C-alpha cells in the first residue's frame, strides 16, 4: 500500500506536537531534580567543613562586605582583579554554589551562584556583583537575581505573589538568616537607588524581570533581617534529598505519558491509512 506524503506529514506533525506539549513539564521536572540535588550536595559539603574553616570563609565574606559600605555605583563595575577576588569568596571545593534561598510561600528552594551570567540564570539564581555577599550583618544589602517565565524552570516566576510581611531565608555555610518582605518596587534596569547599602540595616532583595514577556523593568522584593522563629524549618541535607522511589516514579510517568501519546498518534495515523485504503476499494 502506497503511503501518501500528506499522511507522513500529518504523522510527523502529531509527533512534534506531542514533544512540544511535554517539553515544559519534562524540562521543569528535570531542572527541579537537578537543583534539589545541587542544594543537597552544597549542604553536605558545608557540614563537612571544620568550625575553623567555616569561620574563616564567613569572616572573609564579612570583610569584603565592609569594603562595599560607602562606595558609589562604581562598585557594580567588574574588572579582572575585583572579579578574581569575588570568585574566591564563599567558595567550597566541588561546588559553585555560595548560598541557598528558601521562599516557603511559593514553595521555592534554589541554589545561589556567583554572578549573573546567562549560564547561571538559566538554571538557578545569581548573586549580583557589587552587592553584599549573603552573610548578613549591619551594613549589608545582598541582591540576588532570577529569571521569570522560562519554560524549562520556574525560578523567580512566582515572586510576584509575595506580599509585605512574607518571609524567606538565606542559608550560607549552614547559617540560616530570615528576612521579612518590607518593600516591593518596580524600577528601570538603570535605577539602582533601591539597591543602596544602609550602614545600619541588613537587607536582601530578590530581583526579576517584569512585565512577563516584555522585561523592560525590574521587580524588586526587599526583605529586612528578623529573628528566626522557632517554627522556621531547619535546613539539613536530608530535607532536600529526593527519594529514589519518587525520582523513578516521576521518570516512569513521563516515559509512559510520552509512549501513550506516541501510540495514540500511531493509531490515528493507521486510521488515516485505513480510511484512504477503504475509499480506494
From TrEMBL:
Keywords: Hydrolase, Membrane, Transmembrane, Transmembrane helix. Pfam families: Sortase. The active site is at residues 147, 209. It comes from Fundicoccus ignavus. SUPFAM superfamilies: Sortase (SSF63817). One of its GO terms (molecular function) is hydrolase activity. The keyword Cytoplasm does not apply. InterPro entries: Sortase, Sortase_C, Sortase_dom-sf. This is Class C sortase. The keyword Transmembrane helix applies. The chain crosses the membrane at residues 245-269. It comes from the Bacteria.
Amino acid at each position: 500500500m502506497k503511503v501518501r506524503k500528506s499522511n507522513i506529514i500529518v504523522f510527523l506533525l502529531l509527533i512534534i506536537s506531542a514533544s512540544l506539549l511535554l517539553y515544559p513539564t519534562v524540562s521543569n521536572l528535570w531542572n527541579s531534580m537537578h537543583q534539589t540535588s545541587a542544594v543537597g550536595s552544597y549542604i553536605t559539603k558545608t557540614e563537612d567543613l571544620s568550625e575553623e574553616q567555616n569561620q574563616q570563609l564567613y569572616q572573609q565574606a564579612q570583610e569584603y562586605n565592609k569594603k562595599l559600605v560607602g562606595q558609589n555605583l562604581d562598585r557594580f563595575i567588574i574588572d579582572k582583579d575585583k572579579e578574581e577576588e569575588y570568585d574566591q569568596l564563599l567558595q567550597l571545593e566541588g561546588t559553585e554554589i555560595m548560598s541557598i534561598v528558601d521562599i516557603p510561600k511559593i514553595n521555592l528552594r534554589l541554589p545561589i551562584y556567583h554572578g549573573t551570567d546567562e549560564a547561571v540564570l538559566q538554571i538557578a539564581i545569581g548573586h549580583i556583583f557589587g552587592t553584599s555577599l549573603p552573610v548578613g550583618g549591619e551594613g549589608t544589602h545582598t541582591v540576588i537575581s532570577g529569571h521569570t517565565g522560562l519554560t524549562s524552570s520556574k525560578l523567580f516566576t512566582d515572586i510576584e505573589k509575595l506580599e509585605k510581611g512574607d518571609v524567606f531565608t538565606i542559608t550560607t555555610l549552614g547559617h540560616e538568616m530570615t528576612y521579612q518582605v518590607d518593600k516591593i518596587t518596580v524600577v528601570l534596569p538603570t535605577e539602582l537607588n533601591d539597591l543602596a547599602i544602609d550602614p545600619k540595616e541588613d537587607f536582601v532583595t530578590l530581583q526579576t524581570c517584569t512585565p512577563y514577556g516584555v522585561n523592560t523593568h525590574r521587580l524588586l522584593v526587599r526583605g529586612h533581617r528578623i529573628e528566626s522563629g522557632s517554627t522556621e524549618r531547619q535546613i539539613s541535607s536530608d530535607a532536600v534529598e529526593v527519594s529514589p522511589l519518587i525520582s523513578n516514579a516521576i521518570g516512569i510517568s513521563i516515559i509512559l505519558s510520552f509512549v501513550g501519546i506516541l501510540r495514540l498518534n500511531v493509531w490515528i495515523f493507521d486510521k488515516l491509512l485505513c480510511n484512504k485504503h477503504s475509499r480506494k476499494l
